[in-house]
Amino acid sequence: MICAMVSDLRTMLIPNWISVSLVVAFFLFIPFSALSWSQIGFYMLTSLGMLVVCFGAFTRGWIGGGDAKLIPATVLWLGPLSLIAYLVLASLFGIILLAGVLAWRHLFSVPIFSTNDDWAMRLRNPNQSLPYGVALGASALITCPESLLWTLSLGG
How far apart are the C-alpha atoms of 11 and 129, rounded to whole Å? Predict the structure, then answer.
């Protein structure tokens, strides 16, 4: 999650390897988890459902491609019981991120960083979208330790 957050902030991209790694790690972890087969099925269905929703949102231009892949990969770890908490927190962090970026754009007329800092200049550009992976990652880091997978398997 931290890699996704940093990458999105610095480059406005979330590399595919991050989402793929989350999915692969989930399937490697599952044999050692305390989830039942039916629970694993619900986790996979929840993730698949989010993939469909996110793909639709991506095709309409509402979210970026990296976000559309990161959300279902993250939800695979969180499962259906933590989905709402994850999405609500991601929305709240998104509002905070938006407020911060808008403040950055409007309060600092002179760039604090040098013009060589592409990420800082990108954040100042009003035509640039938000690095929403930051909000998604923060939400996952808070939600994941409370999810059923973690509480059952790791005694969280």
Answer: 12
